[in-house]
Write a structure and sequence with these properties.
The protein is of the alpha+beta class. Helix content is 36%, strand content 28%. It is built from eight helices and ten strands. Strands 5, 6, 7, 8, 9 and 10 form a six-stranded antiparallel beta sheet that branches. A four-stranded antiparallel beta sheet has the order 1-4-2-3, with helices on both faces. α3 crosses α4. It is globular and about 45 Å long. The protein binds adenosine-5'-diphosphate (ADP) and magnesium ion. The site of adenosine-5'-diphosphate has 17 residues, from β2, β3 and β8.
Length: 225
């Protein structure tokens, strides 16, 4: 993790959003579960990657200036065959244009509750960890809890308890309860990362998809400064 941070800041002293594979490697080294992601550079490699990670697959546009991929139609879910992935890549590439430098292929995660786990290096408070409701309603509802790390399991649990969306985790309207413990574990680990690496200005796992059998981040963003 240190090596990734130091190398990237040496090459880009002003700081920047890490390339997705570096961001994924960084958070994975803290034991955070991230959906297997393959970086691709064209329709053929996208189709091959889909066969590798498993179908149905997800294709995402990648580019240094593409921050909110869904806003530009840069996320295609539930692609069932390599041919569908190939076509989706061509279509995305044609529509988004040069801002799309490549793509990311993942396997579709199982249905679950979409949450956010994040970190920010605050000017006065130092590192802060955030947990909240994720997905498309995240910014709209801003249902979030913050803590200063280090954060233990009990504290992570109390963060989730503060959220208005907490009932979604314990089984809402006939849905099965999800593995909140795995989500708490992710919060604790993000706390460790933020404590260890002050160069991480901003970290976003949005969403972390929480199912009855675990929690997996499918979108990882890390900004160094
Ligand atoms: P962005 O935040 O840049 O728009 P995301 O990677 O977060 O793009 O994808 C947008 C949405 O697509 C997510 O909130 C989630 O609902 C869905 N999604 C993304 N990746 C996966 C995946 N691997 N499996 C299932 N759903 C996914
Ligand atoms: Mg996202």
């Amino acid at each position: 993790a240190r090596a990734i941070v130091e190398r990237d800041l040496a090459a880009h002293p002003e700081g920047r959003w890490l390339d997705p594979h570096l961001a994924t490697t960084l958070v994975s080294s803290y034991g955070l579960r991230v959906a297997e992601s393959v970086t691709v550079d064209g329709p053929e490699s996208a189709a091959e990657a889909a066969a590798l990670v498993g179908l149905p697959a997800v294709l995402k546009a990648w580019g240094p200036d593409l921050v909110h991929k869904s806003d530009v139609g840069g996320v295609r879910l539930g692609l069932r065959t390599p041919e569908e992935v190939r076509r989706a890549y061509r279509e995305m590439d044609g529509r988004i244009g040069p801002a799309m430098r490549g793509g990311i292929v993942q396997r579709m995660a199982a249905d679950g509750v979409e949450m956010i786990v994040g970190g920010v290096a605050h000017e006065t408070f130092g590192p802060l960890v955030m947990a909240g409701l994720g997905g498309i309603a995240a910014d709209l509802l801003a249902d979030r809890a913050f803590r200063v790390p280090p954060i233990g399991r009990a504290e992570a649990e109390s963060m989730l308890g503060e959220l208005r969306c907490a009932p979604l985790l314990t089984g809402y309207r006939g849905r099965p309860p999800v593995d909140a413990g795995s989500l708490e574990d992710q919060i604790v680990r993000v706390g460790r990362l933020m404590d260890d690496l002050p160069e991480v200005a901003e970290l976003d796992l949005n969403p972390v998809i929480v199912t009855p059998s675990g929690a997996v981040a499918v979108d990882v963003r890390v900004r160094l400064a």
